[in-house]
Amino acid sequence: MQVLGSVRAPGVYVLSVGSRLMDAIAKAGGLSEDADASGVLLTQKADGEKGAVGGTVTRLIQVDRILEQGQSEENRGLADGDMIFVPRVKREVVVVGEVAKPGVYRIDKGSRLMDAIALAGGPTPRAALEAVCIFEQSRISSTREVQIGMNNLLFQGNAVDNPPIKAGDIIYVPETKRLDWSKVLSFLSGLKLVKDLFMR
Predict the structure, then answer these.
(1) Strands, sheet with 56-61, edge to edge from the N-terminal-most edge strand
(2) Which fold has domain 92-198?
(3) Domain ranges of the chain
(4) Which strands form 143-146's sheet, in the order they lie side by side?
(5) Closest CA to 165 of 119, 101, 102
(6) Which of 27, 30, 96, 180 is most deeply buried (CB count within 10 A of its CB)?
(7) In this structure, are residues 71 and 33 in contact, taking their beta carbons and an 8 Å threshold?
(8) Residue 179 in 3-state DSSP?
(9) Cα(36)–Cα(53) distance, rounded to whole angstroms?
(10) pLDDT-based confidence at 67, cuts 50/70/90?
(11) Alpha carbon distances (Å) from 95 to 92, 98, 130, 172, 188
(12) How far apart are CA 23 and CA 46, in angstroms?
């Protein structure tokens, strides 16, 4: 069977009869540091099951539940020809506008707004830190306007607000506290290509 994706030693393995999902992952060296344990895909022969495509069925397995809660029903039995794919956690955000180095940045778990702006080289002298926008998961319908503070108080620990950020967020630092939504929308349309290239 195959164990692919974010494991320490991806490859094809021969397992003993009665082996289960976690046995295969262990055989492949275990999960890598960037593995998304909540979204492991297990593809098996369909055997008449609903939702089968091309004679196989793919299930989403929450390996994190097995590890944290010991939920044995998630630890499915395996058969010859099965394939396990462990996806990588998406940890990129986009920072644009009045920052020194606009771009796509990889963030750590638990990162906050100030961390992302710092990765982008910090605000420019023209940045309006009292009107920073976070487009959550890149959706205009899920937008937060955050008041960080005037000037560069952000980097002196006096920020008014420093909310957590998530993978897929777009952070826009405007030049003025009166947001120009036409400029914001033009930024977002231009970022579609960036997301397609770097944030799959």
Answers:
(1) 11-12, 2-5, 83-86, 40-45, 56-61
(2) Outer membrane lipoprotein wza fold like (3.10.560)
(3) 2-86, 92-198
(4) 103-106, 92-97, 170-173, 132-135, 143-146
(5) 119
(6) 96
(7) no
(8) coil
(9) 24
(10) confident
(11) 10, 9, 16, 6, 11
(12) 21
Burial 155-183 (b: 16+ CB within 10 A, else e): eeeebeebeebeebbbbbbbeeeebeeee
Q: How far is CA 57 from CA 18, 33, 51, 85, 141, in A?
A: 20, 27, 7, 13, 35
* pLDDT score, position 151: 47
Nearest residue to 194 (alpha-carbon basis) of 102, 100, 88: 102
CA 184 to chain CA mean position, Å: 23
Structure tokens at 38: 């909540």
pLDDT of residue 164 exceeding 80, the answer is: yes
> CATH class for domain 2-86?
alpha beta
Mean pLDDT score of the chain, rounded to an integer? 79
